[in-house]
């Protein structure tokens, strides 16, 4: 299954493969993230409608994030064993299957296909995240932040469109008899399947395989999941910069997912329409991705800690606005935009640092493990956020998120 690479693995060949890799990843991200972007808005509202129970709805809302966590490490292991092309295409097609199941769940109000579909569509999130690491495989060390941030940035295009698929979903529904939610997930399924086809057909030669050959790393024998996890944990136990990067990525994910997941529910309770909710999530996603190239440049120029520190400041501002004006639509929208921007600063800087300091031996598995951990913590935070919102308020939820930022702030600003 290993991809053939040029007979010479010098800098010229690696640079050529990197340019082709970036072009394929950019196209793949734009198409695939349209399908992934439907989950944070339409998927959350569908969960509430189908389950008609806040406890079950809360679990359903976390299902796509949990799916991203469950797929993160297996996809990383697939990349380590067979290359990026096989891992990324498999993830997109799993997500496409999940989106197709959600068409059925939405049309007939079925709970089991709802949960399974949301879990599978989470594979798309895992692939979208791992694509940023694929961009750094052959990038020059001084340019890893920029390469990573470009792939993050182009994901904005699809991710902004995804939350608004309810509008074309309604158009399809009028002509096919599908519900608005079923029509939205039908569009998503097509986009996810096409993204898988793009990367499977065009990501040749494979960037990770090229890197391994250029580094003199022999093709690995198949290893069990447990063996790979042990290697990843050993890497983190001895690699302090990698641990700091992991803490930063996880913290940003927990804060962002907890607030973002509950915002559609909160806004629905405020009386906002699905159009306003979708627009709000689109602006939030734009905040996550729009400034990514700038963040990558600042990270490469000034370093990881200043970039993460700035991101922490933006998140505190976002959460403070959410706590102060929780019943104002304008305040919630502003808070969500800044939430995305703060996440971008911390995630891009932390991911670039991790890609620089992790060893080549555990590179793909460790990257998959980081994404799995961040999504697992994010799913836990999203699930906990539901009861917290019911028992308290959106303001209290925002204040709790500020507290979650304190350990990362201490590691960044105090401990070196």
Automatic annotation (TrEMBL):
Keywords: Membrane, Transmembrane, Transmembrane helix
Domain of life of the native organism: Bacteria
Matches recorded under InterPro entries: MFS, MFS_dom, MFS_trans_sf
Subcellular location: Cell membrane
Transmembrane segments: 21-47, 59-79, 91-108, 114-135, 147-166, 178-203, 242-262, 274-295, 307-326, 332-358, 370-390, 396-414
Main location group: membrane
Single GO molecular function: transmembrane transporter activity
GO cellular component: plasma membrane
Domain Major facilitator superfamily (MFS) profile: 21-416
Topology class, membrane: Multi-pass membrane protein
PANTHER family: MAJOR FACILITATOR SUPERFAMILY PROTEIN, MFS PERMEASE
Protein name: MFS transporter
């Amino acid at each position: 299954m290993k991809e053939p690479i040029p007979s010479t693995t010098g800098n010229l060949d690696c640079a050529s493969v990197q340019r082709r890799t970036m072009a394929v990843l950019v196209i793949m991200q734009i198409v695939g993230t349209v399908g992934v972007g439907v989950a944070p808005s339409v998927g959350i509202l569908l969960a509430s409608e189908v389950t008609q129970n806040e406890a079950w709805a809360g679990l359903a809302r976390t299902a796509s994030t949990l799916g991203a966590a469950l797929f993160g490490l297996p996809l990383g292991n697939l990349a380590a064993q067979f290359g990026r092309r096989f891992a990324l295409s498999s993830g997109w097609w799993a997500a496409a299957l999940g989106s197709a199941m959600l068409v059925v769940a939405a049309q007939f109000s079925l709970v089991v296909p709802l949960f399974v579909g949301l879990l599978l569509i989470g594979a798309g999130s895992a692939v979208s995240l791992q694509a940023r690491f694929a961009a750094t495989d052959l990038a020059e060390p001084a340019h890893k932040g920029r390469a990573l941030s470009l792939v993050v940035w182009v994901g904005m295009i699809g991710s902004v469109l995804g939350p608004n698929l309810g509008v074309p979903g309604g158009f399809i529904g009028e002509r096919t008899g599908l519900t608005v939610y079923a029509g939205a997930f039908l569009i998503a399924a097509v986009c996810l399947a096409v993204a898988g086809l793009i990367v499977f057909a065009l990501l040749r030669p494979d960037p990770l395989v090229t890197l391994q050959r250029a580094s003199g790393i022999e093709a690995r024998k198949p290893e069990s999941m447990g063996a790979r996890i042990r290697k990843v944990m050993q890497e983190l136990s001895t690699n302090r910069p990698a641990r700091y990067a992991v803490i930063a990525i996880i913290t940003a994910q927990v804060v962002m997912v907890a607030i973002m997941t509950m915002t559609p529910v909160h806004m629905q309770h405020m009386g906002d329409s699905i159009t306003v909710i979708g627009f709000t999530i689109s602006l939030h996603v734009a905040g996550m991705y729009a400034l990514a190239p700038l963040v990558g440049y600042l990270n490469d120029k000034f370093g990881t800690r200043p970039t993460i520190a700035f991101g922490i400041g933006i998140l505190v501002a976002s959460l403070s606005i959410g706590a102060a004006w929780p019943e104002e639509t304008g305040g919630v929208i502003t808070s969500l935009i800044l939430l995305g921007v703060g996440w971008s600063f911390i995630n891009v800087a932390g991911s670039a640092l991790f890609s620089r300091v992790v060893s080549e031996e555990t590179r793909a598995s460790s990257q998959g493990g980081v994404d799995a951990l961040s999504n697992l913590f994010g799913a836990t935070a999203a699930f906990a956020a539901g009861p917290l919102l019911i028992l308290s308020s959106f303001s209290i939820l925002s204040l709790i998120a500020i507290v979650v930022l304190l350990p990362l702030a201490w590691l960044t600003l105090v401990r070196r």
